[in-house]
Amino acid sequence: MTAWHHLSRRSTAAALLATLTLAACRPASTPPATSPATPGAGDARYSGTFAGGWRFPEAREAAFGERSMVSSNSDLATEAGVEILKSGGNSVDAAVAVGFALAVTYPFAGNIGGGGFMVIRMADGRTAALDYREVAPLAATRNMFVDSLGKLTDKSVVGHLASGVPGAVAGLDAALQRFGTMTLAQVMAPAIRMARDGFTVDSALYRSLSGARQRLCRFEGCSTFFPDGQVVPPGGTLVQADLGRSLQLIADRGPEAFYDGPIADALVAEMQRGGGIITREDLHAYQPKWREPVVSDYRGYTLITMPPASSGGITMTESFNILERFAPLPAFGTPEYTHLLAETFRRAFQDRNAKLADADFVPVPRDELTSKTYATGLAKQIDLRRASKTPAFETAPEPEHTTHYSVVDAMGNAVATTTTLNGGYGSAVWIPGGGFMMNNEMDDFAAQPGSPNMFGLVQGEANAVQPGKRMLSAMSPTIVLDRDGKVLLVVGAAGGPTIITAVSQVILNVIEHGMTLADAMRAPRMHHQALPDQIRVESIGFPDQTLVALRAMGHEVVTTQGIANVNAVMRVPGGWQGVKEPRGSGLALGY
Ligand code: DON
Predict the structure, then answer these.
(1) Would you state the pLDDT for residue 44?
(2) How is domain 302-390+475-584 classified at the CATH fold level?
(3) Which residue in 49, 264, 286, 429 has its CB near the most CB atoms, within 10 A?
């Protein structure tokens, strides 16, 4: 771009900016109890109009169920959840069924070799947050991913050292034991059936496996996913006999089969063969942990979300507390709104990247970061006309391979669960005989504090590798209660750090901008994570003049194809709506 061109773009933007009504958005001295743009559940919602040419057309229907709803990235996993609900299970039974089914039908993210987080709100008002995140093996060391010249290697991403000790099996079982009503064998039946007898491959899985062939075929999973050397075409049947046997063992013997029994043997043998460090002792010691959810109030709505080892809840709460100081929020899609979100997320992510980590290892200032007073101080720093600055870093491409699912049942019990192997198909390391892939979650640590990880996240010493420690996550399973204390939204996402900002935006679209759930989900998304210092926007989603105005404010703006992968359920009059991610695969289904 020539200097002249650059200048002329800047002055056009400045002229445009002058006509914008920044005055409409002033920091509020006290958060108002209500805002003109905050309808409650059941109020009329507008159908959003987004930038011309936006790829998700209007009038997309949400699924509706009078009694219950499941939304996930896999049609068959959603159907497994509905099967359990229809046979009398509650939403925790169904969520556990969906979790195991995803391990079969959505192998790029669903897993038994990974971990996750679950937020639960029972109809009687009990809330819980389950942390079944992987932990660093006992033999892990702070500099295990740095070479002798001090350079960060790729070993936190590929191969045997990339894996944390898996938490999925222990976690799903813990949720079931505490809040479920069915046995492990009952809720695992759909997953076992689909692994053992096979299931019909859809085009999403076909595309994904085709693209991952080279990586997967470095390890033993190749023969399962490419029987006869070919990827199973859409409509064909994929059988995973070893996985079926492993799931059956877990159903029969409980998590012990995975952590102390034959599956542990297979896992440790593969680690020894490939130079990994996970031992029997690591597996035996693994424990999922019940935590106090992060609960906060935003203009009368209640957010119930995930504490460390996820950064999601604290970062979202800090962001919402900052936004609460501004009333009303600028209109959706305007440069003022995108700027305010960017400045808000920038500040929340600065804290996230420096201060958050596994609170069992590092003191985390949770009360301070989630306090209204602290947010007021940050809100005051925001200049509504100018971008602030953080030093720039190069970012890395972002794999899309976590998965979130939301479940509600007829009683009103709600479960939000996010689970992952981290990158697509994790480390790609396959456990022969076990029939499953291992995670590459070690990359979520600050493998070299100050250097960006695969998501471009620059994190500090607090999140350095330590044996037995959980790596910091961005997963943000969240339940929002309306002003009457009833479940309004069950939401969460995949997408690394964009999880936090995308989940926040879907919630804001519903409670601030009055959108239907379908529109809240299809609405164009933006992202800011402090470093790299740039606003990412979905291409075509924002009018050109918005991007020009944001650049004139001093933001670097980059466009990207799609941001995050959300699955959500919302209460509407007479029942529940569910919407699966328009940018991804899956199904929302209720009855
Ligand atoms: O825990 C985290 O924040 C990451 N391991 C999540 C990875 C992810 O969302 C990748 N997929 N889209």
Answers:
(1) 57
(2) Glutamine Phosphoribosylpyrophosphate, subunit 1, domain 1 (3.60.20)
(3) 429
